[in-house]
Amino acid sequence: MxxxxxxxxxxxxxxxxxxxRRASLTVKAMYDQQSSEVELKQDGSPVTDADFEADxxxxxxxxxxxxxxxxxxxxxxxxxxxxxxxxxWIADPIDGTAQFIARTGEFDxxxxxxxxxxxxxxxxxxxxxxxxxxxxxxxxxxxxxxAGDVTPFRITAPEQPPRLVTSRYYGAVEFAxxxxxxxxxxxxxxxPVMPVGFQPRALDPDWRRFDGFVGFWRPDxxxxxxxxxxxxxxxxxxxxxxxxxxxxxxxxxYNQPSPRPKSGLLVSASPxxxxxxxxxxxxxxxxxxxxxxxxIA
Length: 297
Hints:
Blueprint: H1 10-33, E1 38-40, E2 46-48, H2 49-65, E3 70-73, E4 87-95, H3 97-102, E5 108-115, E6 118-126, E7 131-136, E8 140-144, E9 150-152, E10 164-167, H4 176-185, E11 193-194, E12 212-215, H5 227-239, E13 243-245, E14 265-268, H6 271-281
Helix pairs in contact: 1-2
């Protein structure tokens, strides 16, 4: 496997690809053997020993290779110490644990390196297929298949009218009327509600079912979404030619005191579609979105 060159992150890419591949293989083995134990977190969401093992592998690899970098993962206690570092690795050992448990195959391992609050390297892995994605800021995006073959990844143009979706994790029920209004303004069908959030494979031609993703916050201003759900996907989409922002068109800033973004999610297959969605959303939104808490949470 020959990884892309001509960038400033050769070592980071090498470590990230190897780590996500190893974590993905470990998760796949546990998935195939149906050997994972399931627990419930304090918030009621499920976690398995596959999550914990993938988290351990990621922490060990990054700690050994980049001991000065901060690390934020879903399955490990957060620390304010990361805020003093300009480099922070953000990882979700298994994005889609409920899907892992339900055996749908709709789950991924995701990791991104954030520098000065923006992702610069992104690697994701889909354990059931062995397929990886890689993105490097300013250099592009690639798909790495199970055999190690590397292919450039560019998002193809959206259909007309565009196919829109939303998610049960992004206020789909509470904001159903608003989401429907946006779709109708673009001449699109009423967006179906996905049982998953935005996934790194979503705009890959082998999995693609939509052109735009519209996600709101909860009515109480809260959100189950964390930075580890977004950072890797953010860079992958933007480097592949799509757009990734909050509902107001703002790029996300990562390694924040609270890793819980609250201003919604808008993902589009093209800049033109993104602007059309922003224009349709603008008169329907409050003047400003809910703000993140100022504390680690």
